[in-house]
Design a protein that fits this description.
single chain, alpha/beta, Elongation Factor Tu (Ef-tu), domain 3, Rossmann fold, Dihydroorotate dehydrogenase B (pyrk subunit), domain 3, 3 domains, 7-stranded mixed sheet, 15 strands, globular, binds flavin-adenine dinucleotide, binds FE2/S2 (inorganic) cluster
């Protein structure tokens, strides 16, 4: 894992939906290349721990992080002004592995949608399935289209796109794709893994755990995975956040 701590210039930090912000940072040529599905660990002034945010995009010399205000750290991030320098540890973790010639279904649920944009940009005409609770939380639809994806929108309450869950759409369309990549809440990931198992499609999922160091040193982000028939603990920050869905031992 090759990463660096950098002071990156904040280019813009705009609200794009209810409580959701789009942070763009200067990431010029010569910085470490980013793999889709990797994350950045952002220093927030006044907080001892960095905040992990997935890379939404890393093209054209701009590192884009799309985040939702959850607590104090992300609130402080939303108040950062263009021109300031942001202390970023990146790129971290193991991202999605995508190969040319395959058709992918890229599935994002809620704030799990952003990492699918840079992933879509690495794929050939992927099917992107995005799910949100309601119309106020819908993000990035035009960005996906510009990246060459076919994008399907679903909302839980039917206020935008089709009413229902991303898994409903996946069931309807899974025969069209070779492989599935997903990021979002754990129940959604568990359901997607189940559908892929049923239809015999490979599936990669990006997990989220509370993090401290972000580089595999503190054990905070441990998850159980099954390797060669044995259950072992791995770190979401270092071994993931992307795992083979078949290897993840879902709790509960
Ligand atoms: C690999 C990864 C990628 C992520 N990508 C995104 C993204 O693209 N956009 C986005 O909006 N959010 C993302 N998150 C979740 C985001 O990190 C948390 O919402 C954020 O850290 C909350 O910080 P806070 O100070 O606002 O909230 P608080 O709840 O006040 O945070 C308190 C502490 O808990 C940690 N924490 C709280 N919730 C989470 C969480 N869900 N995951 C990890 N640590 C947490 C914080 O980092 C902080 O150390 C990601 C999390 C992980 C692990
Ligand atoms: S956050 Fe420290 S080991 Fe993963």
């Amino acid at each position: 894992m090759k990463y660096d701590i950098r002071q990156l210039k904040l280019l813009s930090n705009d609200q794009i939906a209810d409580g959701i912000f789009d942070m763009r940072l200067d990431y010029p040529e010569g910085e470490i290349p980013v793999q889709c599905g990797q994350f950045a660990h952002v220093y927030v002034p006044g907080k001892s721990l960095r905040r992990p945010i997935s890379v939404c995009d890393a093209r054209d010399g701009v590192l884009r992080l799309v985040y939702q205000i959850k607590g104090e750290g992300t609130k402080i991030m939303s108040q950062m002004q263009p021109g300031c320098m942001v202390d970023v540890l990146a790129p971290l973790g193991n991202g999605f592995s995508v190969q040319p010639g395959k058709r992918y279904a890229l599935i994002g649920g809620g704030i799990g949608v952003p990492p699918m944009l840079y992933t879509a940009a690495q794929c050939d005409h992927p099917l992107v399935i995005t799910g949100f609770r309601n119309e106020k939380l819908v993000i990035l639809q035009d960005d996906f289209r510009t990246a060459g994806a076919e994008v399907v929108l679903a909302t839980d309450d039917g206020t935008a796109g089709q009413k229902g869950f991303v898994t409903d759409v996946l069931r309807e369309r899974i025969a069209e794709v070779d492989e599935v990549c997903a990021c979002g809440p754990t129940p959604m990931l568990r359901a997607i893994a189940q559908v892929c198992r049923e239809f015999g499609k490979p599936c990669q999922i990006s997990l989220e755990e509370r993090m401290a160091c972000g580089i595999g040193a503190c054990l905070v982000c441990a998850v159980k995975v099954r390797k060669d028939g044995e259950e072992i603990m791995q770190h979401v920050c270092k071994n993931g956040p992307v795992f083979n869905a078949e290897e993840v031992v879902f709790g509960g």
